[in-house]
Design goal:
Elements (H helix, E strand, L loop, with lengths): L2 H5 L2 H14 L3 H25 L1 H13 L9 H7 L3 H11 L3 H12 L3 H28 L6 H9 L12 H9 L16 H9 L6 H15 L2
Helix pairs in contact: 2-3, 2-5, 3-4, 3-8, 3-9, 3-12, 4-8, 6-8, 7-8, 7-12, 11-12
């Protein structure tokens, strides 16, 4: 399973269908939110992991104790039982103080209420964490020594020693964005070149809702194929 599978492959398709049915949403609208939200989540996790050793350790502990990838063995139960309060807490851990900003921006651009956007994010969060857990397990089994930041960076397509195992995200980002931007915010770690710069601009407080909406469209267009 690669990163694009999580968004537009078999897993992404199941997620879109399950979320649409659970929340009573149009599938095309749901697919757009899924395609924009998952890259935001993964990039935010990468930012958190690189921000401090404590946050990186917290993510690793969450993967080890709760998110080992077994969620993919029974996706139906996630969509039939959720969204739950625990799943909503995962969203808040991922986005922190930007959580409401993310919900509002996705709501304004998609036309879906903030309440249902919150439900979509809550159902996607355990999928993103489960995917990371599965990748971390594979890394450990192969004797890999990199930290969680290295792992997420490789998934997103960052890092000099990139292999084809990430699903070609680095090449995809380069073809859509033309490489990394030269005006990345100094407070934003260099998480993955073009994608990191794009997500950094989404969280840049100087950008208005129109600019944020354009960035979400770029993410959805990049991954929602």
């Amino acid at each position: 399973m690669n990163f694009t599978d999580l968004i537009s492959g078999s897993i992404g398709s199941q997620a879109t269908e399950g979320i649409s049915e659970k929340l009573g949403l149009d599938k095309n609208q749901t697919q757009w939110v899924v395609s924009a939200a998952i890259p935001l989540m993964m990039s935010a996790l990468n930012y958190n992991a690189q921000k401090s050793p404590e946050q990186a350790n917290g993510i690793q502990q969450a993967l080890a104790s709760k998110h080992n990838g077994s969620i993919f063995d029974n996706l139906g139960s996630l969509f039939s039982n959720g969204p739950t309060e625990d799943e909503d807490k995962i969203v808040n851990h991922i986005f922190g103080k930007n959580t409401e900003n993310v919900k509002q921006s996705l709501s304004e651009k998609s036309g879906i209420s903030m309440g249902k956007i919150a439900g979509i994010l809550a159902l996607l969060a355990p999928l993103v964490m489960g995917y990371l857990g599965k990748k971390k397990q594979g890394q450990d089994e192969q004797g890999g020594s990199g930290g969680i930041g290295d792992l997420i960076g490789s998934i997103l397509g960052g890092g000099a020693s990139q292999s084809g195992g990430s699903g070609g995200i680095g090449d995809l980002i380069g073809s859509v964005l033309g490489g990394g931007s030269s005006n990345a915010q100094s407070s934003q770690p260099n998480v993955s070149g073009g994608l990191g710069d794009l997500v950094g601009e989404f969280f840049n407080q100087k950008n208005d809702s129109k600019a944020k909406g354009s960035i979400l469209d770029s993410l959805a267009g990049m991954f929602g194929k």
